[in-house]
Amino acid sequence: MRSLLLLVVIIVAVSCGEQPKEKVLPFESSKDYETKMILSHQEFLKKEKNRISTFIDSIGEPFVSTGTGLRYYIYTTSEGDSIASKDFAFIAYTLTSLEGDTLYQSPKGSLQEFIVDYDNVESGLHEGIKRMRVGEKAYMILPAHLAHGISGDNAAIPSQTTLLYDIHLVAKK
Is 44 a domain residue? Predict the structure, then answer.
């Protein structure tokens, strides 16, 4: 019995020794970490803006820039109906990265349909389609924050990818 009591006392004494140290972020504080993340994101945005500008310069067409960062160029105009929120838009498209890699495209002979401002498509596509008329064709450049952002789409679109839509607004309902 004495040896059992001695063993319990030893276990308690050892377990009451030095406590494990609390894990600390690699920076001095969480505020410092937040600052470093903000600076990193600002650097990414600056580089992305430069890549987009270089791409537009290489095409040599008059892209329009919106306040959100969307750039678009309507290369085939039309007198068709304009598009508004809650309209059903029917489009044919090819979606590529700025580097030219095809990520998605509508199958030949079929159209993608979505409800403007309500369906689960890129926010930049919702914004851009409302600047078009039925029958028009356009290029739309969606910065990552108007597309799939940090996560990508877990399929063909990698993280923080700038997207280029070549889009034809075929009809609305």
Answer: no
